[in-house]
Amino acid sequence: MKRFLQSGFVVAIAIAMLMAPSSSRAMGHKEKGTACVPQSVVNLNNTMRQLWEDHITYTRNFIISSLGGLEDTGKVAERLLRNQDDIGNAIQPIYGDAAGQKLAALLREHILIAADIVKAAKSGDSDGVAKGQKRWYANADDIAAFLSGANPNWSKAALTDMLYKHLEFTTTEVVSRLKKDWAADIDAYDKGHEHMLMFADALTSGIVKQFPKKFN
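Now predict its structure.
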């Protein structure tokens, strides 16, 4: 976890240095290897990381509870869906209420499709899994299209690649748990966790570049 937090801070410093006027850098405002990181950038980066870390963590909790038939499955699902609303709410001050609601709706669809896939996989319904996967990747395409349309710094191709990777890691978790391959399950979660924090950093970077005056 320590390296994840350090990664986020490095991203914040890099953003701040990119935003700083070249004359300021030349005049020695970056002395002794330090940089002044605006608190607004740090706050945004922390918020994005927390929200997307919740996304990956509660997704895993749901997979474990659902596949295990645990009594908390419903409550975990409620918390996971709330996270999608939280992510939508987080961008509303920047992109408006409609955009926040749209992103939340797309992310809730992402979770509901995942729940269908987990259910189908648990019951051995390979056709249901295949259909769910098709819908899941189409939803990822919709999310990438929406985000890239809101911010030109978010490449649609890059977003699509990152979202597909998230789906791959999550799928590996489900398959590995069904096979009781605990080592592979844990490895997929660890890699997916790190990947999701990188995704959060990419979103932060794009927002700061799009609205530099908000973060100076």
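Residues 41-214 form one domain.
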